[in-house]
What we know:
By secondary structure, this protein is an alpha+beta fold. β18 (405-409) and β19 form a beta hairpin. The protein is globular.
Amino acid sequence: MLTRRAAVRLAVLAALAPLPALSGMGGEGLVVYTLRDGEVLPEDGVDVPQPVGSLQKPFIARAWAEGHETGDPPRFRCEGKTCWLRAGHGELGLSAAMAESCNEYFVALAREVSTSGLASALRDAGFTFSQSVTAEDAVGLARAGTTVRITPRALLLAYAGLVRTEWPARDDVRRAVLEGLGRAASSGTASALARRGLLAKTGTVPVPGSRLATSGWALALDSAGRSGRLAFLPRGTGAEAAQQLARLDGHVDEGPAGVRIALFSALRPSRVAVLNASGHPVRVTHGAERSWLGPEATLTLTRDLRLEDGLYTLSLAPYGLVRHVRGALDVVVGRGGAPRITLTTTPRGAVEGILDGELPTGSPERRQELAAAVLRFLARGPRHNTADICDLTHCARFVGLGPAVVWESPVRARHDGLRPLPPALGDAAWEAALLRSRESGPSLFTGHCGGATLSEHAVWGRGERGATPCLRHASSPNPYSRTLPAVDLEALFRGPVTALVAFEDDGVRRVRVEVAGRPERTLLYDDLHSLLAARLGWDALPAPPDRFERTASGFRVLGRGRGHRVGLCLAT
């Protein structure tokens, strides 16, 4: 029998593990198709086109995104007149509408897209149809003779692609869709699945020849899009199909899922050396080649390869940066010769590396609070197409096992000694953090709230509009000022910058950049922050700016706080 401690660990880590491999027939005629490593099983029926109803809705959002280069996804009010929920859903944005599968919202969204745009997005995802597609058809409210269909294989692969592949022009819309799919699994139409970290969607379709009977579909994916299941319930609803699918969830793959972390995302090293500090040989794979890296042996990364799970010391030239990490390393060498490195580590390894990066000297209580927030953050799904998170403040400052470094300049790091950091959490604290992550609480965190916490909507133009105030810094704005030299701005924006203006639009903080002879640009904080960092360093814009002042040498930017100021404030 499991001890209570082991049961808690298994229950929470299972939420981050890959989906169980289930297939074939379930209870009461339930048919389940399973996606694993690009393969869909069983073969029987996997290539038969079928109507799937509301499972088409993410691709309506794709069609809208491709037809709207700018602007936030609209908000609509559902009155229940043509929606499955007769009472209506009220006013909804894209993520909430996806979670609740609101018909009225998606019909209204589809009507903002041309018929050809709807057809193109559905066809690209693998759907087939016999006539031109109306807004109602795109939502799954089919007319006679115009039923939109897709095979189970194509549907699972389309959703996996939705999770794993960024949209070239409007990836912010894709992220809003993924947020809605996550909410569907936790509190929306697929909440019967009761698993953290899943992305899910349900659909209900009429039974041919019957006026009242329906069949239900439920689709669930892990947050990385690597494994998934599609369930069909011949008589029922999508929500009931999700219930049946949840009942089949009888076991969990051994061990926790890996968290993929893009390392050194802001750097382009000329040379990266990897030392095997594991104390035993580790396997190295390059295509079909297999070799070993012995203990204390060093390998310079000059080609694509994978180093299996181990303890490694990475040295980056010319930056002088050294970092210890534990896990597996995937290396892709770009055309310029700079290796891009992705670490796959355990959830605990990811959390501890973020604790040491974001809150190295915090109290045990504060570190446990942050650990729970990090677990909630990871459960929201991947933020990059090839990794769950990066090691920048765009996601979370991850330092692995250290050592602690001081950046003397944007291109030079200094470290004191090469010893790995001790574990950030003991076993008891880790299990307490796991349990705490199941409770409601923040899933985002920031360096200093500036005396006034911002909402997700205010910083990124999506997500929650409300923010929980930080009680520690209500009267502590922590102001900052920085100078942005005109010569650097001119190089970044390809012309003399004549004005920088901080303003709000529908509660969203933006910066307008006016450049002589060029169209003006409007940037969110993250976009401006990353742009400035490439030339002036990551500290050039510590937090969303309040205002800009013109000076003789350029612009002075004034603001308060550190980080995006959303979520749990980490300043003590």
